[in-house]
Amino acid sequence: MKTIAALQDLVTAASLDFEPPAAELDAIEHEMPLIRAEVELLDAEIMSLDRPVSELDERRIRRARNRVMAARRDLTNHTATVQPGGAA
Question: For the chain, which terminal residue's Cβ has fewer other Cβ atoms within 10 angstroms, N or C?
């Protein structure tokens, strides 16, 4: 009878104990306005789940969607203007 063994190393807490690099933190900080806008949209949608949607809820969701679209537009426009290597 053959024994069955794992072909990969075990994943332990020690192997996951690291900090993200500065470049990843900068990318997250750069995308933070979009993340906040998406969280606000999610909050507005969650508030309307367990009750009939009122006119106020519709406005809140519409405004949150507009904020998400504006944040995506700003992020895309800023990313498109930044050249690789720091060239302008």
Answer: N
Q: Within 10 Å of residue 65's Cβ, how many Cβ atoms?
A: 15
Q: What are the tens digits of pLDDT across the range 28-84?
A: 999 999 999 999 999 999 999 999 999 999 999 999 999 999 999 999 998 777 656
Which tokens in the block code for residue 6?
């794992």
Only one residue has tokens 């519409």, namely 62
Q: Where are the alpha helices (DSSP H) in the chain?
A: 22-47, 55-81
Closest CA to 79 of 71, 67, 24: 71
CA angle 55, 57, 60 (to 5 degrees): 110
Give 1-31 pLDDT, tens digit per residue: 676 666 666 656 565 668 889 999 999 999 9
